[in-house]
Design brief:
single chain; alpha+beta; Outer membrane efflux proteins (OEP); four-stranded antiparallel beta sheet; 13 helices; 4 strands; 65% helix; 7% strand; elongated; disordered N terminus
């Protein structure tokens, strides 16, 4: 049996304290947890849980998007789709992971370097002098130079984390607007499809009537060919609308993380939202643009981060230095206690490259911000002008709608009174349907421009009642 005894209680306590300190250090360390990619593949095929998403949408915190209470009754409105996209988008979930990295960099910037504990043992060898003893040296050193730049590094890391948060919020805003626009397009196409099918059906009917009449030599073959060509173009228009509907639904499913083939229920909008005239002024749209655009605010935060980094690099020109205390005993049994100071001599490296790189990066961010502001103003002005022109086109087209409606009504009445043949009655009805279809397409263009203007100006301009 092996028995260990401690001759000195102080030594025993020292060993226990050292063991406890070691356990404390190990307990504060992070541990590894696996995250297999198979989980990601399984998650990608999971349909969105609408109840959970609705709860998250009601608790959303975003600079531009307000939380919504979503019931899902009768489907989802475009505004509800926008908020759902923010909380459900797989791409945004991956993008938000950048915040964790930015916060880790903030933590890293505030951590001071660990002190260094050194111990050496010198045992006499090859010497028969009985007065010699084993020499020991214990030293504690700490690089205090990091204290000089700690505040600047912390400021740079915090500003960079803020820039990441704002950039993520800007991407969330764009994703929400893209999903909202997809919903509006789907509703618009659903309004256009019945008109396109009606036009196709009436042209097919007209073609059949003309083919019968051509067999009786009442019309020419060129009349039949023209009717066939019109019917074919109407069929292609209808097929193109159906293809656009499939693409828009697939795009919306991708944003929301919904499996392909599942149709997200949408509330039918009675009309597209109106664009408030008092909000459409260019001066109003441009006023405060730099304080609303989250990407510009992110660039401001990035510039502040780089400015703090430049200050840290300038301070890094000072010589590095470290302090230490030492206690030892040499082989002659002479005990000593002292301290040490080490200073770097900046003869060659005075951090010239670090300062130059930081200055160049700050200048690049300054120029990028200037260019982005000019680009944002130009986008707002261009889209506002396009929207104004489209609004005038819509007004002009609507002003002629009553005349087409009267012509179609009178043609139908004349047909019922046997005063007009079917092809002529179909022609008037087709003109009215085509006019309504053109008006719906212009409305779709108008809403696309309005959403685009809302996006680039970072202002909620549209009517949010739908």
């Amino acid at each position: 049996m092996l028995t260990m005894t401690f001759e000195h209680p102080v030594r025993r306590l020292s060993l226990l304290a050292a063991g406890g300190f070691a356990v404390l250090l190990l307990s504060s360390c992070a541990t590894y947890h696996s995250l297999p990619l198979a989980h990601a593949a399984a998650r990608a095929g999971t349909p969105a849980r609408w109840n959970a998403l609705a709860k998250a949408a009601s608790e959303l915190k975003h600079p531009l998007l307000k939380p919504l209470v979503i019931t899902g009754t009768g489907g989802f409105s475009p505004d509800e789709i926008a908020v759902l996209a923010v909380v459900a988008s797989p791409d945004l979930r991956a993008l938000r992971d950048q915040r964790g990295l930015a916060q880790a960099q903030v933590i890293q910037a505030g951590i001071l370097p660990n002190p260094q504990l050194g111990f050496s043992l010198d045992k006499p060898h090859g010497n028969s002098d009985p007065t010699l003893v084993t020499g020991r040296t214990l030293g504690l050193d700490w690089d205090v130079y990091s204290l000089l730049t700690r505040n600047n590094r912390m400021a740079a890391a915090k500003a960079a984390a803020k820039a990441v948060d704002l950039d993520v919020a800007w991407q969330e805003w764009q994703t929400a607007q893209a999903a909202r626009l997809d919903a509006f397009r789907i509703l618009s196409i659903q309004r256009q499809l019945p008109l396109a099918r009606k036009i196709e059906h009436m042209l097919d009917d007209t073609t059949h009537i003309l083919e019968v009449a051509a067999g009786q030599h009442e019309v020419t073959d060129s009349d039949v060919a023209a009717a066939v060509d019109s019917a074919q173009r109407a069929r292609m228009d209808r097929q193109d609308l159906e293809r656009q509907l499939r693409l828009e639904r697939a795009q919306l499913n991708l944003i929301l993380g919904v499996p392909v083939g599942e149709n997200v229920p949408l509330k039918p909008a009675p009309a597209f939202p109106a664009f408030p005239a008092e909000e459409a002024g260019l001066a109003t749209l441009l006023h405060g643009l730099t304080s609303r655009r989250l990407d510009l605010l992110a660039l401001k935060a990035g510039y502040a981060s780089q400015d703090a980094a430049l200050r840290a690099e300038i301070k890094n020109q000072f010589p590095r230095f470290a302090l230490g205390i030492h206690r030892g005993r040499d082989t002659s049994d002479i005990k000593s206690v002292g301290f040490s100071v080490s200073i770097e001599l900046p003869l060659f490296d005075r951090n010239q490259a670090g300062v130059a790189a930081a200055e160049a990066s700050r200048r690049q961010l300054f120029d990028e911000y200037t260019a982005r502001v000019a680009q944002a103003r130009a986008e707002v002005a261009t889209i506002a002008a396009d929207l104004d022109a489209t609004n005038r086109q819509v007004a002009e087209l609507r002003s002629t709608l009553p005349s087409y409606a009267r012509l179609a009504s009178s043609s139908t009445h004349a047909f019922l009174e046997h005063e007009l043949n079917a092809p002529s009655e179909h022609e008037a009805s087709i003109q009215l349907a085509q006019h309504l279809l053109d008006l719906d397409r212009l409305d779709e263009s108008r809403i696309e421009l309005a959403v685009a203007l809302e996006t680039v100006s970072a202002r909620p301009l549209l009517n949010r009642d739908l």
